[in-house]
Amino acid sequence: MGIETFLDISCENEGCTAIVKLDLLVNHLIDCEYSPKKLVQCENGCGMMILKNISCENEGCTAIVKLDLLVNHLIDCEYSPKKLVQCENGCGMMILKSDNNNNINHNCVHVLRSELDVVKNEVQKYKHDVDFYKNEVRTLQEFIRIIRTNNPTISCFLERVENDEILRWSSSLQLARVTHWGGMISTPDILLQDAIKQSLLESGCPNDITNELMENAHERHWPEGLSTLETRHLNRRHYESYVCRRIVGQQAVVVLSCDNRHMNEIMLVEPGIVMIFSHGVK
User: Fold this and answer.
1) Which of 72, 75, 134, 184 is most deeply buried (CB count within 10 A of its CB)?
2) Based on C-alpha coordinates, what's the Rg of the chain?
3) What Gene Ontology terms for biological process does this UniProt record contain (predicted)?
4) Averaged over 242-262, what is the pLDDT?
């Protein structure tokens, strides 16, 4: 037996820290738990010998894992071409890493257009739902109007409910400032009135209140202090005291009684006044 037999040799398998005699090295390499070529019996009874430790097949990955952990490793492996990553071009979509690296099978413009189409369809559906519920509310309001006409007791109760409803609606409108009161249109034509009415309904104004307000959009239904050009001129100094709310999308405001209890009675009418202007509403 030569002296080489007694030399201490480090195991060459990565991760193994064993130091063995030269004459035992072959046996150690066969049995070494860190050997990438260690064979084990197939657990499925196929009779074949399979590798116990497997190198990851993904390009760039140096991991060597147990066979029973290989599937999980391949799923989580940072080098997997099937791993989802965020598009590097800025569209924000999650795509396969292989597609991102090779710039194939992914078109940012096409994807974003598809996303936009989905959003448009959803918005259209919501608009349809809103229109449906608005019609339901209007039907209910008309039903309530008929009931209150025929029953004074219910009418008093519903009047309180209506006032609460007006307050809730008015609180959703922005306060407005009129910079040019001289631009007031005291006798609006039918087309202009229809446009204002539609805006009121779209803002959530109850149907019956909308009808009453539109009645008060013409000077013939305005209060005493606004009924003629002469009285409007005399009372112009009081205009700045009005609390006005903007009618969305129109050069018009609504002056509600519930907002203007501080005003003189000759400047108000229930449930409020619609004032339309040629310009000057902010």
Assistant:
1) 184
2) 41
3) protein ubiquitination
4) 89
In the chain, what is the greatest distance between 2 CA atoms, to the nearest angstrom? Answer: 132
Helix/strand/coil for 79: coil
Q: In degrees rounded to 5, what are phi and psi of residue 100?
A: -65, -40
Domain chopping of the chain, boundaries: 3-68, 119-167, 172-277
pLDDT at 49: 47
Cis previous bond, 271, omega within 30: yes
φ, ψ of residue 87 to 5 degrees: the values are -55, 130
Q: How much is the pLDDT for 1?
A: 46
- What b/e sequence results for 182-205 when a residue is b if at least 16 CB atoms lie within 10 Å of its CB, and e otherwise? eebbbebeeebbebbbebbeebbb
The predicted model gives 58-86 an average pLDDT of 78
Tokens of 57: 């097949």
**Gap between the Cα atoms of 2 and 107, Å rounded:** 70
- Beta strand pairing status for 272-277 and 184-185? antiparallel
- One-letter amino acid identity for 111? V
Q: Which two tokens stand for residue 258?
A: 């519930």
Q: How far apart are CA 240 and CA 201, in angstroms?
A: 27
Q: CA neighbours within 13 Å on the CB side: how many for 240?
A: 2
- Taking residues 179-207, what's their average pLDDT? 89
Contact 37, 67 (CB under 8 A): no
pLDDT for 3 equals 45
Nearest C-alpha neighbor of 148 from the set 161, 136, 138, 137: 161
Q: In what order do the strands lie in the sheet with 175-176?
A: 175-176, 244-246, 252-256, 272-277, 184-185
Using an 8 Å Cβ cutoff, are 268 and 260 in contact? yes
Task: Give residue-wise pLDDT tens across range 223-244.
Answer: 888 888 888 888 888 888 899 9
Which structure tokens are listed for 170? 């008015």
